[in-house]
Design goal:
It is a single chain. This protein is mostly helical. It has a single domain, classed as Farnesyl Diphosphate Synthase (Orthogonal Bundle). Helix content is 69%, strand content 1%. It contains 15 helices and 2 strands. The chain has a two-stranded antiparallel sheet. The longest helix has 28 residues. The radius of gyration is 18 Å and the shape is globular. 45% of the residues are buried.
């Protein structure tokens, strides 16, 4: 059952980051449980696969970022929740499809067997398709937002999830870059699209729902673009340095697949310098925002320091 506004946790600007992330995850998980078809509904196998993938223990970073940005600009949390869940559905669909044998061919995700390993490849494809379409249905039917705002959000999310300037384009470039050398500009483009586009969309959607000004939206876009780059460079490093237990997926796959990554192009030491530069740029982008941005800065710190 949805909480009323009086029962909602404190606003973004008043809550330390660890507590905020815990609150956001619980709230998003509860709403996802309400929005997703139950496993008892036919076709049961598809719904079981959806829930297996969504409730595998993800960080809920994208919805948390949307909530943080929206609340920074004064939006009520309940007005942000449906779109936050939609972003998580799209993110999970991308992971399900990214793990497929025809893509990255991985058998471990979020610490347990990937969707196609558990349910079969055809079911995994359909589960991903269902999550993508349900995401847009969720935004389109959000009665807490005006029709105009819902249309803006759908356009924003579709652009970030698709092509030519979204996640699908980034995944295509990533596949094309396997087993060959890439230049610095091409590597950054892959990362900005494959990972960064949806992260940027999450932040922009929060600002859009909150009726942020044109200047605020521009600053949030710059911030989140650097945040997305920071997130993927960290992923590149963790694939080299972390264990499967820590990251919840198979480490070393990037090198074995000869993926285009920052460590492969620059080496570990120089990659850390690129991390620091992206972090500094993300924080600098917040300087022009005339709202308390401590939480957003803490999110950049969190990504820089994450170990999983």
């Amino acid at each position: 059952m949805m909480k009323t506004s009086s029962e909602m946790p404190g606003c973004a600007r008043a809550v330390p980051l660890p507590e905020f992330l815990t609150q956001a995850r619980k709230l998003v998980d509860s709403e996802l449980d309400r929005l997703l078809p139950d496993e008892s509904f036919s076709p049961k196998n598809i719904h079981a696969a959806i829930r297996w993938s969504v409730f595998a223990g993800g960080k809920r970073f994208r919805p948390a970022l949307l909530l943080a940005v929206g609340e920074t600009f004064g939006a009520a949390r309940e007005s942000l929740l449906a779109t936050a869940c939609a972003l998580e559905m799209i993110h999970t669909y991308s992971l399900v499809h990214d793990d497929l044998p025809s893509m990255d061919n991985d058998d471990l995700r979020r610490g347990r067997p990937t969707c196609h390993v558990r349910f079969g490849e055809a079911t995994a494809i359909l589960a991903g398709d269902a999550l993508l379409t349900l995401a847009f249905k969720t935004v389109a039917e959000d009665g807490k937002l005006s029709a105009t705002k819902r249309a803006l959000l759908i356009s924003e999310i579709a652009g970030a999830a698709g092509t030519p300037e979204g996640m699908v384009a980034g995944q295509a470039y990533d596949l094309e870059a396997e087993s060959r050398k890439v230049a610095a500009a091409e590597l950054e483009l892959i990362h900005r699209l494959k990972t960064g586009a949806l992260i940027t969309a999450a932040a922009r959607c929060g600002a859009i729902i909150a009726d942020g000004s044109t200047a605020a939206l521009a600053a949030v876009t710059d911030y989140a673009s650097q945040l997305g780059l920071l997130f993927q460079i960290t992923d590149d490093l963790l694939d080299v340095t972390a264990t499967a237990e820590a990251i919840g997926k198979t480490p070393g796959k990037d090198a074995r697949s000869r993926k285009a990554t920052y460590p492969a192009l620059y080496g570990i030491e120089a990659t850390h310098k690129h991390l620091a530069a992206a972090h500094a740029s993300a924080c600098a982008a917040l300087d022009s925002i005339d709202e308390p941005t401590e939480l957003l800065r803490s999110i950049a710190d969190f990504i820089l320091e994450r170990e999983s």
